[in-house]
Amino acid sequence: MTTPLRIHTLFIGLIALVLTGCVSHPKGVSPVTEFELDRYLGQWYEIARLDHSFERGLEKISATYTLREDGGVKVLNKGFNVKKQEWEQAIGKAYFVNDANTGFLKVSFFGPFYSSYIVFDLDPEYQTALISGPNKSYFWILSRTPSISDEDLSELVSKAEKLGFNTSELIYVNHD
Questions:
Q1: What is the Cα–Cα distance from 163 to 174, expressed in whole angstroms?
Q2: DSSP 3-state assignment of 40?
Q3: How far apart are CA 75 and CA 72, in angstroms?
Q4: Bridge-partner residues for 42, per DSSP?
Q5: Contact, 34 vs 135, CB < 8 A?
Q6: pLDDT for the residue 25
Q7: Which alpha helices (H) appear in the chain, and where do they start and end?
Q8: Cβ-count burial 89-98 (b if 16+ within 10 Å, e if not)
Q9: CA distance between the termini of the chain
């Protein structure tokens, strides 16, 4: 059975983002250019993240991106709540902040409240990505597969660390 993904904590988190300048990007973090949305669409698996109340206690987390009729992107986030032994999901929408060739989007799971979704590292084959929110407290490593090699993971973590993300606090997601 699927239930809403911690709606109350997500709402509080989004309010906090609104109050801290939610559609911006952290110092030193630049969105990728020559971004191709069609190649980015589809399912991505969360490999690692910094802690957020709206994902706490979840495993097997994935995000699926599809086109919306209005030209935006539908976002479906899913995760398995270990304690409740059930799947949870949240559905949102995203739109480009500048242009469709720059990996800088704003995403909303609640009405007019938007937060930054910044693709700041993307391999040429669109198999792994580094994502930031409006500040360095929000960070994700995504992959097209539920796991990646230790070498690739180390390289991605190193890139994030050099930009000032607190990689010692990363949570590595279980997909077993």
A1: 25
A2: helix
A3: 10
A4: 65
A5: no
A6: 80
A7: 7-19, 37-40, 150-162
A8: ebebbbbbbe
A9: 19
The SS3 of residue 135 is: coil
Q: Which of 91, 84, 110 lies closest to 1, judged by CA?
A: 84
Contact (CB, 8 A) for 126 and 39: yes
pLDDT over 80 at 49, yes or no? yes
One-letter amino acid of 81: N
Burial class (CB in 10 A: 0-12, 13-18, 19+), 127: middle
In sequence order, the 6+-apart residues with CB closer than 8 A to the CB of 126 are: 36, 39, 40, 144
Residue 110 three-state SS: strand
Which segment of 10-24, 96-110, 121-135 scores lowest on mean pLDDT? Answer: 10-24
> Burial, 48: exposed, middle or buried (Cβ in 10 Å; 0-12, 13-18, 19+)?
buried
What pLDDT does residue 4 have? 52
Reported as type and span, the H/E element at residue 170 is none
**Confidence check: pLDDT of 5 > 90:** no
Give residue 31's pLDDT. 97
3-class state of residue 167 by DSSP: helix
- The structure's pTM equals 0.86
In angstroms, the Cα distances linking 82 to 78, 85, 156, 173 are 13, 5, 27, 12
**Pairing assessment for the beta strands 86-96 and 104-110 based on DSSP bridges:** antiparallel
